[in-house]
Amino acid sequence: MIIVTLLPVSILQAPLYYNENNGIQALNYGSIGFTIGHELSHSYDNTGRQYNELGNVAQWWTNKSVEEYTKRASCLISHYDGIKVVSNSSSAVNGTLTLNENIADITGLKEAYYAYLRYVDLHGQEPRLPGLERYSQEQLFFLGYANQFCHYKDNGNQFNYNFTQHSPDVVRVRKVLSLSPEFAKAWSCPIGTPMNPKKDKCQIW
């Protein structure tokens, strides 16, 4: 299978990317690593999985695999469907419409996290970040992920999330991380709290 992923060169700079001489790789893997993983994951989202190695629409999975995938995807839809960012707004996340992007968010983050652990295995543990020594490298990874979605938005110009394929930025942080066992472990989130709910975490991969 040939995978084509387009990443604009402009994002390969701070604060999304720091070169090896002036940055902590935990932050790089959490931000640009996630972005790369996200885009690659689209090859196996609910649309990408329907194409074979030649790029043709074909049923190349076993029926059992399709059944299990559909079950897991339905779990994700139920998690996202109806989320409101602004409580008094009629706009809500459409779990079905945003499914592919939500799959890519969750899978991309997981891929980037384990890629970072592999980096540590090869190069050793990184030093603590000056000024933020209280955070472990694993915690910095997730901070790097969340930071890219942090920006000011004028609430007076509300966007209708009923008709977009991407979940709102706040949902892409809170919901994705709440579905991540790796995040809960890194931050020692008690079971049953908002960031580590008891509900099925809907892992596609």
UniProtKB/TrEMBL annotation:
<dbReference type="Pfam" id="PF01431">
    <property type="entry name" value="Peptidase_M13"/>
</dbReference>
<feature type="domain" description="Peptidase M13 C-terminal">
    <location>
        <begin position="7"/>
        <end position="201"/>
    </location>
</feature>
<dbReference type="InterPro" id="IPR018497">
    <property type="entry name" value="Peptidase_M13_C"/>
</dbReference>
<dbReference type="InterPro" id="IPR000718">
    <property type="entry name" value="Peptidase_M13"/>
</dbReference>
<dbReference type="InterPro" id="IPR024079">
    <property type="entry name" value="MetalloPept_cat_dom_sf"/>
</dbReference>
<protein>
    <recommendedName>
        <fullName>Peptidase M13 C-terminal domain-containing protein</fullName>
    </recommendedName>
</protein>
<dbReference type="GO" id="GO:0016485">
    <property type="term" value="P:protein processing"/>
</dbReference>
<dbReference type="GO" id="GO:0004222">
    <property type="term" value="F:metalloendopeptidase activity"/>
</dbReference>
<dbReference type="GO" id="GO:0005886">
    <property type="term" value="C:plasma membrane"/>
</dbReference>
